[in-house]
């Protein structure tokens, strides 16, 4: 592991711990050259499906893109970075368990919206307004009215 401070490759692991649900290993390391300490995270590399974009391009799944969109949606909301990481872990796990080799970007967007609706409704509306590209205030209000409906409410 390359030291982020001096770039040297020689280091020693001081401490290892499982974090979260045991899916990530957190390691404290010490560089043998500059003696500075840093943390690394290790996770199993899973084969995730390719994402089919709207223009039919294919690209690998990128958790950083989802995290970026989520961070914008939850800005100034009481949601921790760990909660967002768990959120994306859930999306990744569902994709992996689906067994599909390719999925559409809209499938991912809908999955994100399903989970975001349960996590934080304000963030859900923010994400939906960008993701669904509402053309006018009426479309936005329709989405809000669906959000406000309670299960079994005939409104």
How is this structure best summarized?
Helices cover 43% and strands 21% of the residues. The protein has 155 residues and is α+β, with helices and mostly antiparallel strands. Strand 1 (11-19) and strand 2 form a beta hairpin.
Can you walk me through this structure?
With 155 residues, the protein is of the alpha+beta class. The protein has 2 domains: 11-43; 50-148. It contains 5 helices and 6 strands. It has helices at residues 63-73, 81-98, 105-119, 121-131, 137-148; strands at residues 11-19, 24-31, 37-43, 50-52, 58-60, 102-104. The strands form 2 sheets. The chain has a 3-stranded antiparallel beta sheet with strand order 1-2-3, with no helix packed on it. Strands 5-4-6 form a 3-stranded mixed beta sheet. It is elongated and about 60 Å long. The protein starts with 10 loop residues before the first strand and ends in a 7-residue tail after the last helix. The mean pLDDT is 88.
What is the overall shape? elongated
Strand order of the largest sheet: 1-2-3
State the total count of DSSP E strands.
Answer: 6
Number of domains: 2
DSSP strand (E) fraction? 15-25%
Mean pLDDT: 88
How would you classify the helix and strand content by structural class? alpha+beta
Q: Radius of gyration over alpha carbons?
A: 20 Å
Q: How many H/I helical runs?
A: 5
What is the CA–CA distance across the termini?
Answer: 58 Å
Low-confidence stretches: none
User: Which H/E pattern describes the elements?
Assistant: EEEEEHHEHHH
Largest β sheet strand count, sense and barrel closure: 3 strands, antiparallel
Estimate the helix proportion, in percent. 40-55%
